[in-house]
Amino acid sequence: AAVPAGVLALLGALLWAPWRVLHGAPLAELSGDQDFQLFLHKNLEFTRKIKGDVAALQSVVCDTFQLCKEEELLLVRQDLGIAQVPLEQCHSRTFQAEACFSQIRDGLHAYHGSLAAVLELLPGHAGLVETLQLDAANLSSNIQQQMEDLGLATVTYPTEGRDPLPAFSSHFHHQVGGFFILANFQRFLETAYRALRHLAHL
């Protein structure tokens, strides 16, 4: 379905206009604008919570396997084929609301699957990993619901090369794979957080 021009125009205003200018603009194009702001603020908090849980798991990987510094593991990374889930549609220069939301939603789905490798690696921390998977699924579904509420076109981005998980040739490779899944997820969440905060623009 085509995206209503008024919705895109308003999202553009939310993104770029100074708030005092936007405040005087007619907001009739986007029904339930307060709901949209509530969605943004609620999910900013949710994203911050998920980032904290990823950081906690990164600390566990550091303490358990002494895998703490990315630059020391870059050569091993080349053998693993673990790609960063793209979020180029959420960068300010190329920002498009429906494309950014779609990439966040699809990326969360991809990381939900990738976390299975971390679950295998850290059975003693299964509760935290499973909570993270549940939170990723819930945030993805929140975004999908909000896109439908706004009448935004949903775009599905291909996930070739990221799913299924690579087969790790050794336990050490599995450990390093878990390290990079978490490091990539943390970067992904940082970008998603900035995009949501940019839209909130308060």
Outline:
It is built from seven helices and no strands.
Secondary-structure blueprint of this entry?
Elements: H1 5-16, H2 19-23, H3 33-65, H4 74-80, H5 97-121, H6 126-150, H7 171-200
Helix pairs in contact: 3-6, 3-7, 5-6, 5-7
Describe the structure.
The protein is mainly α and 202 residues long. It has one domain (34-153, 165-200): Growth Hormone, Chain: A (Up-down Bundle), CATH 1.20.1250.10. It is 68% helix and 0% strand. It has seven helices and no strands. It has helices at residues 5-16, 19-23, 33-65, 74-80, 97-121, 126-150, 171-200. Helix 3 runs antiparallel to helix 7 (171-200) and helix 5 packs antiparallel against helix 7 (171-200). The chain is elongated. Residues 8-32 have low confidence and may be disordered. Belongs to the IL-6 superfamily. It is found in: Secreted.
The helix-strand sequence is HHHHHHH
What is the helix fraction of residues, given as a range? 55-70%
Based on the coordinates given, report the CATH architecture: Up-down Bundle
**Helix count from the secondary structure assignment:** 7
Give the tags.
Growth Hormone, Chain: A; mainly alpha; 7 helices; 202 residues
